[in-house]
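[Automated response] Your request has been received and processed.

Submitted sequence:
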Amino acid sequence: MPCFSRSTPTVRTAAYCLSALLSLSWALNVCAQSPANYPNKPIQVIAPSTAGGGFDLVGRVLGMKLSEQLGQQFVVENKPGSGTLVGTQTIAKAQADGYHILVGGLSNIALNMGLYKQPGYDPINDFIPLRLVVSHSYTLIGTKTLPANNLKDLLAYAKANPGKLNIGSSGPGSGQFILATLVRSLGNVDILQVPYKGAQPVYMDLISGRVDLFFDNSTTTRSYLEAGQVKGLAVSSKSRAPDAPGIPTLKETGAMDLEMETWFGWFVPAKTPAPIVEKLRAEIDKAMTQQEVRSKLQQGSGRILQMNTLETETFIKSEVLKWTQLLKQAGIVPE
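Generated structure:
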């Protein structure tokens, strides 16, 4: 009989030790993922854009507050690239352990689905939404010498003078670009779209009269409107902005049946343990009861969002479907 036909005490002992180590490893992993022990190390928060924008703001405001509440640092990392694709793909591929969080918004969760053939992630199946916390409208502004004071007159003028007007816009994945494109396509007008690398150069040319129009975040446009440097033609939200009640919505002008708000919130990779997901949701809800947090997120014209989990999931699915279809109707071909 071969000498290895029966397990020796040494082999049995080694097997027993291996089994015990595996069991211990499993137990430690389960313990580390339990709400009682989470978090026990710093948490990475990816803002898929450069510093200073909406993604960055939401990441840092919530990150600072949750660091206070949970006693661990929520470290915000700006990871721009290919619009918002690089940073978003990073979290889609990250370990689903609660230590990797994405700042998600209209741009990377919904618009990218209609802008790219292969974005590298599925916004519905690759992420779990924690909470959406704030949304901002866009305001269509024009130079002071623009021969129109509202959207209806603007479109009439553009049709009578094809190619005479131009509109500034940022990169292809931005709300500025999308709205500029929709004004041209849905308004059926010939307006030249001028690309810029950021909003500040657009304002310089708008004030000087080299650019006629710009659709920008309402918070940013407000100071220029109050200074009388530009004129406001319409806001993209469902309701008028509280701090600019004299500017009608796109729908109110009767010229365009369109609503658009850029919303932001936190997301984690799919398969993140449910107890950790619920703990993060509870901590965000707690943070959002603080007026200082709400004020920082609003920045004057923002709208605080208050939706439960089901409402959040339903809203996100509807936004992905809506914008994928609308961008297709506008003639935007995915890259």
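Summary generated for your ticket: The chain has two domains: 43-136+261-329, 137-235. The domain at 43-136+261-329 is CATH 3.40.190.150 (D-Maltodextrin-Binding Protein; domain 2).
If you did not submit this request, please reply to this message.
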